[in-house]
């Protein structure tokens, strides 16, 4: 594939975002990597992609500051003159119980996981309407949404809002935009290797996933013109537990 379509990936400098940027660039997409604090990682990723002959750029911004989202999207458009797809991947994953969650934290987590995806999707929709073009949004969810833990109530509330936003915007923004979601399971550890191993042994497939499994799902949804409002679970059967 050599689409030369442009994909904006929020939180694209590290972990799954980085893997998706590398994969999509290799598939012919031009990628715009969003970062907040990970500017150094974003710069290095752009350099790495350039050495491989791929077009990329990065934009920096705080997704919890809703007043800057339109400007952030405009910067992404300026990189290559267009944006065709949006992957809402940026995440805050604070381990805070209900007792530890104050209004400021809750609003910050909701802003990153729900408000920013909503208004960035709106910006893409308006941009595509002006161009008389079509594109897509992919929201990155979490396989744990069906069995949330007590340690991160704000995170799961925000991801739950994003899950329903996927369906709501699929209905509201078609046919200009297709809106889908990917729910990764055990792919990258957050440092709790004991939990990772325990959960792996409980999965029906008895193995963890690879970042390439997520990248393949994303690639499928970007290219499937008759799929919208769908959540694709890439979790080794985690949601069956």
Which geometry do the CA atoms define? globular
**Residues in β-strands, percent:** 15-25%
The strands making up the biggest β-sheet line up spatially as 3-2-1-4-5-6-7
End-to-end distance: 37 Å
Average pLDDT: 95
Helix content: 40-55%
Rounded to an integer in angstroms, the radius of gyration calculated over CA atoms is: 17 Å
Count of individual helical segments = 7
Main sheet overview: 7 strands, parallel
Low-confidence stretches: none
Question: Given the helix and strand composition, which structural class is it?
Answer: alpha/beta
How many runs of DSSP E, i.e. beta strands? 7
- H-E string: EHEHEHEHEHEHHE
Describe the structure.
The protein has 241 residues and is of the alpha/beta class. 46% of the residues lie in helices and 15% in strands. The protein contains seven helices and seven strands. It has helices at 15-26, 39-51, 69-80, 103-131, 153-173, 193-202, 211-223; strands at 6-9, 30-35, 56-60, 85-88, 135-140, 177-184, 231-234. It has a seven-stranded parallel β-sheet with strand order 3-2-1-4-5-6-7, sandwiched between helices. Helix 5 (153-173) links the parallel strand 5 and strand 6. Helix 1 (15-26) packs across helix 7 (211-223) and helix 4 runs parallel beside helix 5. The longest helix is centred in the middle third of the chain and has 29 residues, at 103-131. It is globular and about 45 Å long. The termini are far apart. The mean pLDDT is 95.
């Amino acid at each position: 594939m050599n689409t030369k379509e442009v994909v904006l990936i929020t939180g694209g400098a590290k972990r799954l975002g980085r893997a998706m940027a590398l994969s999509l660039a290799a598939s012919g997409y031009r990628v715009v990597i969003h970062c907040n604090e990970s500017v150094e990682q974003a710069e290095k990723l752009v350099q790495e992609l350039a050495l491989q002959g791929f077009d990329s750029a990065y934009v920096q911004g705080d997704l919890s500051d809703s007043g800057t989202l339109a400007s952030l999207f405009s910067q992404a458009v300026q990189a290559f003159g267009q944006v065709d797809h949006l992957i809402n991947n940026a995440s805050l994953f604070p381990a805070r119980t209900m007792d530890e969650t104050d209004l400021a934290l809750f609003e910050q987590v909701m802003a990153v996981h729900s408000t920013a995806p909503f208004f960035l999707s709106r910006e893409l929709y308006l941009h595509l309407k002006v161009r008389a073009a079509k594109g897509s949004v992919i929201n990155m969810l979490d396989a744990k949404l069906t069995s949330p833990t007590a340690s991160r109530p704000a995170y799961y509330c925000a991801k739950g809002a994003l899950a329903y936003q996927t369906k709501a915007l699929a209905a509201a923004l078609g046919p200009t935009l297709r809106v889908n979601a990917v729910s990764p399971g055990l792919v990258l550890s957050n440092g709790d290797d004991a939990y990772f191993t325990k959960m792996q042994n409980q999965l029906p497939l008895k193995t963890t996933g690879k970042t390439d499994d997520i990248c393949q799902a994303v690639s499928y949804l970007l290219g499937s013109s008759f799929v919208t409002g769908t959540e694709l679970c890439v979790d080794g059967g985690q949601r069956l537990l």
